[in-house]
């Protein structure tokens, strides 16, 4: 059988490698050098737009993909903040038969405590960003009033005491290594 025939019939295709497509695409329909340049330029513009949209989307989402926008405190900064933290007593206009209400702040979150004599009652708590509250003991019927603030890397145990009507937060910090 001669080349270019199928079963003795001519296929009409030239069997020159790489040249078959010319039969189906006439020379007038093929892009010239300017067409290739425009095609590459269009592809580059589309890629740049896609990258820009991706960057804007990541910035809008926040720290989920690109990392935290806030930096965690070092152990030394936490110790310094805990050492200088002092309770800020606040007066309580509301309440039934209790002592003064005190707002306390720790690295793991904020607490509101009422002292009745030497007994502490935990009224409310608000974990700091990245922390959650656990093992809450409201007092005074519990052994001690307190709770635990937990993050992915740190645990801050807070024990609340009252001495002569003044609330104090005793903290113990441990890290997951």
Automatic annotation (TrEMBL):
Keyword hit for Membrane: yes
Annotated keywords: Membrane, Transmembrane, Transmembrane helix
Membrane-spanning segments: 40-61
Protein's name in the database: Septum formation initiator
Organism of this sequence: Actinocatenispora comari
């Amino acid at each position: 059988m001669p080349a270019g025939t199928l079963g003795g019939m001519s296929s009409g295709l030239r069997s020159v490698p790489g040249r078959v497509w010319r039969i189906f695409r006439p020379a007038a329909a093929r892009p010239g050098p300017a067409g290739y340049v425009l095609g590459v330029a269009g592809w580059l513009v589309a890629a740049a737009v896609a990258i820009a949209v991706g960057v804007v989307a990541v910035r809008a989402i926040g720290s989920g993909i690109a990392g935290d926008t806030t930096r965690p405190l070092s152990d030394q900064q936490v110790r310094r903040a805990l050492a200088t933290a002092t309770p800020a007593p606040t007066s309580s206009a509301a309440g039934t038969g209790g002592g003064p209400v005190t707002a306390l702040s720790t690295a793991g979150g904020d607490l509101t405590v009422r002292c009745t004599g030497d007994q502490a009652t935990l009224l409310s708590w608000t974990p700091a960003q990245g922390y959650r509250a656990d093992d809450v003991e409201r007092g005074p019927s519990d052994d001690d009033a307190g709770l635990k603030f937990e993050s992915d890397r740190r645990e801050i145990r807070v024990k609340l005491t009252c001495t002569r009507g003044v609330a104090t937060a005793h903290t113990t910090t441990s890290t997951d290594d």
